[in-house]
Amino acid sequence: MKPAELRAAIVTTAQAAGRSGLTPGSSGNVSARIDGGMLITPTATKYERLTPAAIVEMRADGTVVGNGLPSSEAPFHLAIYRARPEANAIVHAHSPFATVLACARMEIPAFHYMVAVAGADRILCAPYATFGTPELANNAVMALMSRKACLLANHGQIAIGDTLDAAYDLAWEVETLAAQYWRVLQIGGPKLLDADEMG
Ligand code: 13P
Prior knowledge:
By secondary structure, the protein is α+β, with helices and mostly antiparallel strands.
């Protein structure tokens, strides 16, 4: 996609995240990789009012091209693009059930085979660090490792993909799994699938 199309696609993705309840209020953020940097949602903007022109361009070194205040989470978006050359898009959400588990600092184990869509037999929870900090960026990269999604302690979740649609769909899958796992915990906990089966 050309940068102009990517800007429009980021707006569409962010608005879908807001409308669908994936991330409440102005929480969460969305980015896409471009040559030498990324395009990212601006900080603290109501998604319904977002326009393609408001999407902020940043270079890989963190400098802003043109105007606009980028998401406070730009550091972890940039760190993930640096660490994961195959990632072209990132969705960060404070989705309800993923955030509940993240606030208990729990990971999502192999309670359902669909956990594997996040790239492994469990979805890890990154240790807590203040939003927007290099420490959080480092923790997120470590929790993702070679995976496509992670929880962030006392915060929310991150999903990555080779397209915006893939990252958005995965963020919803993580939220669905978190909701299912939370419910299973209410009735005595899951019987986990073994490593062979998850493989
Ligand atoms: P921004 O509005 O700065 O993107 O922050 C929202 C958020 O979810 C921080 O984690």
